[in-house]
Each structure stands twice: as structure tokens, then as C-alpha cells.
């Protein structure tokens, strides 16, 4: 069992690990300032624009990656094919093949 002082130190360290990021966010208030007066206001985005950017682009990217994976999977042969009974060129083994025949006669 841990002593009280070690428990207190661990509690303080855990509290500090939680409080430090919260304090950093709280102190970043000036970063949420308004647009400088010299800049012109931007045009608001329509709902369609927002959907296309935040939904359409990720979905399109996922579809492209999925298609890329399917194309690569169809172009390559499985690496285990040479170890399957019969192999890529050999005749298929009969159902009554013994264990020694399946293991290559060892």
C-alpha cells in the first residue's frame, strides 16, 4: 500500500495534468478576438458549401482509398496460395490424404 505522501503526490500530479491544458485554453481568450477593423468581412458559406466541404470531401476520399485497396487486392495473389493443398500448379489432394502427404512427406 502506498504511503499518504506518495498518494498525495500522485493526486497532485494527476490534477496538474488535467488543470494545465484547461488553464491554457482559458488563457487563450484573446485568441478569440473579433476580426481586425482593417479587414473586410468574409462572405458567409451556404449550407450546401459546408456539406460539400465537411461531408463530401471525406466521403470521396474514403471511396478513393477503398477503390485503391480493391484494385490492389485483385492484382496480387495471396501469399499463402503456395502452401494450400495442391498449390498453384499441383493437382488437388484427395480427401483421404494422410497427414504425411499434406505435410510434404516429413
TrEMBL record:
Transmembrane domains' residue ranges: 52-73
Signal peptide (UniProt feature, chain positions): 1-33
Keyword line: Membrane, Signal, Transmembrane, Transmembrane helix
Region (Disordered): 83-106
Name of this protein: Secreted protein
Amino acid at each position: 500500500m502506498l504511503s499518504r505522501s506518495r498518494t498525495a503526490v500522485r493526486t497532485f500530479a494527476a490534477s496538474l495534468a488535467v488543470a494545465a491544458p484547461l488553464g491554457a485554453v482559458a488563457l487563450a481568450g484573446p485568441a478569440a478576438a473579433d476580426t481586425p477593423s482593417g479587414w473586410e468581412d468574409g462572405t458567409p458559406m451556404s449550407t450546401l458549401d459546408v456539406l460539400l466541404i465537411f461531408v463530401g470531401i471525406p466521403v470521396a476520399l474514403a471511396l478513393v482509398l477503398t477503390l485503391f485497396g480493391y484494385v490492389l487486392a485483385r492484382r496480387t495473389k495471396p501469399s499463402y496460395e503456395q502452401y494450400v493443398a495442391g498449390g498453384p500448379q499441383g493437382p488437388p489432394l484427395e480427401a483421404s490424404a494422410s497427414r504425411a502427404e499434406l505435410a510434404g512427406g516429413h
